[in-house]
Design brief:
With about 290 residues, the chain is of the alpha/beta class. It folds into two domains: about 220 residues, Spore Coat Polysaccharide Biosynthesis Protein SpsA, Chain A (Alpha-Beta Complex), CATH 3.90.550; about 60 residues, no CATH class. About 45% of the residues lie in helices and about 15% in strands. The protein has twelve helices and ten strands. A seven-stranded mixed β-sheet has the order 3-2-1-4-8-6-9, with helices on both faces. A three-stranded mixed β-sheet has the order 5-10-7.
């Protein structure tokens, strides 16, 4: 039975927006301005990650001037990376729902409209993902799933990349889900979020929200780590890390072989070896590892 929304429940739908900041002095104020006024945003948790510019000073001023903005730094103001910064933000968050915004990106006015409606009417949903576009690129790539996907099929489709992927700036999740899947992997310098969404899709109920019109916009620039640092090796590390996590779960043989294929694709490129030979070896080892766990 679908529960009707009430004014009381709407007032109690509040999101903690976690925002890691590293060398974001040029953009962080615009990012905050796009989010802080949204009625669904209960707070913005800034994690200043040991920037080399004057990001810390800007964040200190912004947090002093707005009670919805809180600021944290790592011990001794160290630079610990996106994973540990997001993890600290999640731990400090005080609301039941978590969203993310990178310090060089922005939210759109419709950021939480569908998310709120879904969470308040579908109690079993753990997370909602929506489309994300590019700033000043009206015809640029949109991060979205090209069709509505049943939650029980989402893991398989994300693993295969069948209908696309969603972006970190466009997902809203219940905070309690991290008790089930764990936190972002600090050993991965890039693509930690991709691994996290695979974990969540495997264990939890994620549904599509606004899949056509972007709810957030991301910015391309030279200082963006994902544009300059990603390569076949970084992608390989993500799938190897996810394999080590999921092999202890009840993953089907079919999905395990898809994962082995994904690992083999990037591994063959990194090692410059024939894909077929790498795939056969990895599939055999994956199946042995699975049946040892049974």
């Amino acid at each position: 039975m679908v529960e009707k929304k009430s004014l009381f429940s709407e007032l109690n739908f509040r999101v903690s927006v976690v925002m890691p900041v590293y060398n974001g002095a040029k953009y962080v104020e615009e990012a905050l301005s796009s989010a802080v006024h949204l009625p669904e945003v209960g707070e913005i948790v800034l994690i200043e990650d040991g920037s080399e510019d004057n990001s810390l000073e800007i964040c200190e001023e912004l947090s002093r001037n707005n009670e919805k903005i809180s600021l944290y730094v790592h011990e001794n103001n160290q630079n610990k990376g996106a994973s540990e910064s997001r993890n600290l933000g999640i731990l400090k968050a005080k609301y039941d729902y978590i969203a993310f915004l990178d310090a060089d990106d922005i939210y759109c006015e419709n950021r939480f409209e569908k998310e709120q409606n879904i969470f308040l009417t579908q109690q079993t949903v753990d997370g909602v993902y929506s489309a994300v576009g590019y700033i000043n690129e009206p015809y640029g790539k949109v991060f979205t799933l090209k069709r509505v996907v049943e939650p029980k099929k989402l893991f398989n489709y994300l693993l295969r990349g069948t209908y696309g992927h969603f972006h970190t700036n466009g997902i809203t999740i219940k905070k309690e889900i991290f008790n089930k899947v764990g936190y972002f992997n600090p050993e991965l310098l890039l693509h930690q979020d991709s691994e996290m969404w695979l974990k969540m899709a495997f264990t939890s109920t994620l549904v599509g929200g606004e899949l056509k019109v972007p709810v957030a916009l991301i910015r391309r620039h030279e200082g963006n780590r994902i544009w300059v640092g990603q390569n076949d090796k970084t992608r390989l590390l993500v799938y190897q890390s996810f394999f080590n996590w999921v092999i202890n779960k009840k993953i089907s043989v079919f999905n395990l072989l898809i994962l082995a294929r994904k690992i083999s694709f990037f591994q063959s490129k990194v090692l410059k070896k024939p894909f077929v030979l790498v795939f056969i070896k990895n599939s055999f080892q994956a199946l042995i590892a699975k049946f040892k766990k049974l």
